[in-house]
Model the fold of this input.
Amino acid sequence: MNFHILIRSAKQALVAHKSRSLLTILGIVIGIASIIVIMATTTSATELILGEVQGMGTRTFELIPGQRPKGPSDFAQLFTESIKDRELNAILNKRNVPYLNKVSPNILVTGNLSYNGEISSPSTFGSSTFMAEILDIEPVLGRMFDENDIKTRSKVIVIGKDVVEDLFDKENPIGKKIRIKGVNFRVIGVFPDKGRVAFANVNELALMPYTTAKDYVQKQSHYNSILGESTTEEFLDRTVEDIKLTLREIYEITDPQDDNFHIQTQQDLVERVSTITNILSSLLIAVAAISLIVGGIGIMNVMLVSVTERTKEIGIRKSVGATNKDIRNQFLVEAVILTFSGGFLGVMLGSLISKIVSIVLSNSLEVTWLYIVPLDAVFIAVSASTIVGLIFGLYPAISASRKNPINTLRYE
Done:
């Protein structure tokens, strides 16, 4: 039978039962739409995270206490106190780490900020001016604390826009005293309205000299992490290796497996994020594929019912010369058209939902959530739906082709 005739006959048969055809492909539509949404969302999320990570620069790294976590039970190691002034001074020694450019020892400060009965709960850190350089934030009011403030352990603080609104409303905060954990700090600067940058929301950020945070607020001898930068991108690996050798010499570590610290570069984070999102995407797609199987079973069921309903039609076609192959191909084409149509509608629906998701997340998270529907997602979706039609339509098609023409003509 001519291929064009097969297509026309299949379309006529499906159009004759429009409602049943639409309900039959519903499972396919949901499955394909789910795959599109999952792949679009994970791709957009990956681009956003990688953009934030890479925005910190290709020369930066982070020295973190404790061994690199290999599982959930290892995260307790991150709270070890192995990075102190001795380690910091050894790293800053040019004879040990010649290609180190800048560092920011970081102290995580707990507790709320208060002013005249008003309270704010920002992300508060003790750091150096290098932290502001990494985030590319220069105060729009006042100034950033400097090296002299760090050396003299000045009780000064720079705060974000949301912190200003929480504590001062429309009052000028510069020069005002705010309190944290019983210590008064003078506000010397306000960060710009910049939203989320890299790992921090600038609007909800407060920075103070790390020496002040360590000695007067947290009253701890160790650093929670050290951000650093090599002189050039080419010397990043050399700088990281020099720091490892320096710290191993201090701790008298001979086996790298015994390191009580680890260093993350931006490339490490990029690879880790990509691996995690790819695994997560694969797992979610596997779950979504279940609906494709359910939809395929539904199609097989409906096609078997259609074969029974059209038994007499099959007999008539065979009596006028249609072969078993012609009958099989006709029903197989009907199944493929059903699933291909489901795949097409699923791609359209999934793309629409992905667009809505990108708009909602951009507004709610205050980030640039890109609308991305990967071409490979469309190819996978359409291919999967077509294969489902071939697999689950094959048995009904073969069943129809094997019917005895004499018995089919007698069927009522």
